Amino acid sequence: MQEYTYICPECTQEISVNDEMRSAILANGCPVCTAAVTQTDFE
After folding, report:
1. What is the domain range of residue 11?
2. What residues contact residue 13 under an 8 Å CB cut-off, 6+ apart?
């Protein structure tokens, strides 16, 4: 399973996530501050 690093554009929280978590964050927003998320927020 691939790992991604998510960096929130609003609160700058950095989280390592897998594919399933990445999909959930894209659908629901940042898990910390609920800011909108795009695919460019993942490394």
Report:
1. 3-41
2. 6, 7, 30, 32, 33
| pTM of the complete model | 0.85
Domain count, the chain: 1
pLDDT at position 1, please? 79
C-alpha 15/C-alpha 20 separation (Å) is 13
Grouping H, G, I as helix, E, B as strand and the rest as coil, residue 39 is: helix
**Is the CA virtual torsion 33, 34, 36, 40 positive or negative?**
positive
pLDDT digits (tens, 9 = 90+) for 19-34: 999 999 999 999 999 9
H helices present in the chain, as ranges: 19-28
